[in-house]
Amino acid sequence: MKKILVIGAAGQIGTDLTIELRKRFGNQNVIASDLKQPSAEILSSGTFIELNVLDKASMEQAIKQHQITEIYHLAAILSGNAEKAPKRSWDINMEGLFNVLDLAKELNLSKVFWPSSIAVFGPSTPQTNTPQKTVMEPNTVYGISKLAGERWCEYYFQKFGVDVRSLRYPGLISYSADAGGGTTDYAVEIFHEALKNDTYECFLKADTKLPMMYMEDAINATIDLMEADVQKVKERSSYNLAGISFDPQMISDEIKKHLPLFTITYKPDFRQAIADSWPASIDDTVAQKDWGWSAQYDMSEMCKIMLTEIGKKTK
Ligand code: NAD
Ligand code: SER
Asked: What is the pTM for the complete model shown?
């Protein structure tokens, strides 16, 4: 029987992923964990345990106690925050992953999901329709940790048979939880500020185009990949995943269609250099071919949902 542990369940992705996993596999079969308290919906719909991914012994105890068969390991320090604390971020991103991979190997878990990111690419990568296999020379703490993580995931699969599966998520856009300190966070913040104050000061330049995705697409991709037949999962580093690509000006124009008074100003900060090192768009045809991936949401649909759902909360 499937019994899932989500590590990082209180974060932007964990908040939505935990609920969707509980819907699909049963509330009692999905254990949420994090350092901090998750949403009220996660707390009321199933078990939550406080767990530090750096504490291997406690994780081992939790896996045994709850008879866990699969782990979705989401805990990490994202790109913007990682630049402020490089060594601590490296330790959390890498030691956390090693603990999960080692426990999967030692306790013979059936599967592990670990997300990589568009941050594995760097300034020397082709920026448009970035292919699955290309030059990868990231120049951020976060990107270096994700690229190293990809290599270790493939290593654990090849050497020890750990069935670890991974996606290079683009910037994810959602309304259930705040974004967690990344470079693409502006594309979440903008909706909250538009509805609250009719204006937003963006920390990236107007024409900084980045790959993005609405959360429901990301959650579906994650569960589809984890549920795919093992022979279909051919990339054991991480799969490119594409949704929508846009820049701050384009999303601002779309928001103005719904909120005509909305204005945007630009004050680029240190995250501009991070964004400039990442692709503008991603080629995910390998994921489409291997396990049938296709994104459902475009920018206009995503904007409508974000404004409606955040609007309900800000009333
Ligand atoms: P987030 O920052 O919102 O959530 C991460 C969660 O991990 C937080 O709730 C935090 O409390 C928890 N955490 C941090 N340190 C921990 C520790 N030592 N032990 C246990 N929990 C700890 O991040 P997110 O946006 O939900 O991202 C989840 C994963 O997806 C990360 O690996 C991230 O790199 C990856 N990713 C996210 C995006 C995105 O746009 N959100 C894009 C690409 C990749
Ligand atoms: N959204 C993430 C970040 O900006 C990308 O991995 O850090």
From this structure: 0.98
Give the domain range for residue 66: 4-169+215-240
Q: Quick one: DSSP state of residue 131?
A: -
Same domain, 154 and 233: yes
Residue 290 lies in a domain: no
Could you tell me if residue 256 is inside a domain? yes
| Ligand 1 atom nearest to CA at 14 | 26
Q: At a CB cut-off of 8 Å and minimum separation 6, what does 52 contact?
A: 35, 58
- 142 catalytic, yes or no? yes
The CATH number given to whatever domain includes residue 41 is 3.40.50.720
Residue 171, ligand 2, Cβ within 6 A: yes
Q: Which ligand is nearest to the CA of 15?
A: 1
Mean pLDDT of the chain: 98
Pocket test for ligand 1, best of 5, 19, 34 (most atoms within 8 A of CB): 34
Q: Give me 121's structure tokens.
A: 């690419």
What are the residues facing 32 on neighbouring strands?
Answer: 6, 48
Q: Is the CB of 119 under 6 A from ligand 2?
A: yes
pLDDT of residue 314: 80
Same domain for 104 and 201, yes or no, is: no
- Residue 133 pLDDT grade (very low, low, confident, very high; cuts 50, 70, 90): very high
Nearest atom of ligand 2 to the alpha carbon of 142: 7
30 and 129 housed in the same domain: yes
Give nearest CA residue, ligand 2 atom 6. 117
The CA distance from 300 to 277, in Å, is 26
pLDDT band at 137 (very low <50, low <70, confident <90, very high): very high
Round to whole Å and give the CA distance between 252 and 257. 9
